[in-house]
Write a structure and sequence with these properties.
CATH topology of one domain: Serine Threonine Protein Phosphatase 5, Tetratricopeptide repeat
Distance between the termini: 167 Å
Strand content: under 5%
Order of helices and strands: HHHHHHHHHHHHHH
Number of helices: 14
């Protein structure tokens, strides 16, 4: 059989050759629709990823602001309790700048202003003259080089001032590099304030600022937590020694040399609180002894004697309380006068 004739009689070849342009269009349309669907799905996936990342960033920023608000509210309460009403006012006003609808801060601000008014400490606001800052005419590259120099010198405060000037002048200039230096400056200045200066509040503030530009490393996060715990424990000083011990006991292990601006370390705070709480126990023991609550007096004397040295009279009370609590007959040593409990004199009825 002739090869040409065989091809002429192939049904598939005949069908393909006989297809008109209109018959081929559905196939082309299906291919185009499939390609369009792939493009749309890819765009939707990219958009979904962007929206998820944006949501995570917004949640992170909200959490950071919430942490800072809580810290500032705590500092305001501490200042208020110590009678530093002007400092407390500044903390509560700062919270309201971050969260204008924060009712708790608004209420405490009102109380603080009343305290200031009552004590005639309300500052007189004098008209502030308008000061026009001298414009920095240097170009951005020169300012950037100056910022690098401050970074190399570890002059974090000057670096932050320079970065603020640059950001005001041109917010779009080297944003990634500038944000990185902001993080470094706030992080390192915050650590220096906590570890060297004992400025715990300022250090926490700086570390919170650093977290706006990146995640804190473990060391910085730990020191921020320890500083906040130190401040909270200090708020109970002289008020509730047991709470002081509760806060400073773990600090004396994790950060024993952490101190405030008075250079009073965490382990010093704990040791002082332990002595003070035992003096409290000693005073309570004396009261319980006078009330003839022998067992409670014995327990309190026993607790106090584990840390402080009892006087001879307290030792005698301690022994007497123990004997009466457990029903032990006192034994006197040679040359020792036994403790006598006053006995009631029976009433004598006169003979008529």
């Amino acid at each position: 059989m002739n090869t040409d004739e065989s091809q002429d009689h192939n049904p598939e070849t005949v069908d393909q050759d006989n297809q008109s342009p209109k018959q081929r269009r559905p196939v082309v349309k299906i291919a185009l629709l499939g390609l369009l669907a792939v493009i749309v799905l890819g765009a939707l996936g990219a958009l979904g990823g962007y929206l998820t990342a944006l949501s995570d960033r917004q949640q992170n920023e909200a959490q950071i602001i919430s942490t800072e608000v809580a810290d500032q509210f705590l500092f305001g309460l501490i200042a208020f309790e110590h009678g530093d009403y002007e400092i407390a006012r500044q903390h509560f006003e700062y919270i309201l700048k971050l969260e204008p609808n924060n009712q708790a801060a608004a209420n405490k601000l009102t109380e603080t202003l009343l305290k200031l008014s009552e004590s005639d400490e309300l500052p007189t606001v004098a008209p502030t003259p308008t000061i026009t800052p001298t414009p920095d005419t240097r170009d951005m590259e020169e300012l950037y080089n100056a910022a690098i120099s401050y970074k190399d010198q570890q002059d974090w405060t000057s670096l932050l001032d320079m970065l603020d000037s640059m950001r005001v002048k041109d917010p779009t200039y080297k944003t990634v590099e500038i944000d990185g230096m902001y993080y470094l400056a706030y992080r390192n200045r915050g650590m220096h304030r906590i570890q060297v200066e004992g400025n715990l509040e300022g250090g926490i503030f700086d570390l919170n600022r650093a977290e706006l530009f990146g995640y804190l490393d473990a060391e910085a996060a730990n020191y921020r937590t320890w500083a906040a715990r130190y401040i909270t424990g200090l708020s109970f000083w002289g008020v509730d020694w047991q709470e002081v011990i509760n806060y400073f006991s773990p600090l004396a292990i994790s950060a024993p040399y952490l101190s405030d601006s008075n250079y009073f370390t965490a382990q010093d705070r704990l040791a002082t609180a332990q002595v003070e709480i035992n003096f409290e126990s000693l005073n309570k023991a004396r009261t319980r002894y006078q009330q003839k609550d022998w067992c409670e007096a014995y327990n309190l004397f026993n607790q106090a004697s584990s840390v402080i040295q009892l006087t001879d009279s307290d030792l005698q009370r301690f022994e007497d309380a123990k004997n009466k609590c457990f029903g032990i007959e006192p034994t006197s040593q040679p040359g020792e006068t036994p403790v006598e409990t006053p006995q009631e004199t029976p009433a004598v009825t006169p003979t008529p």
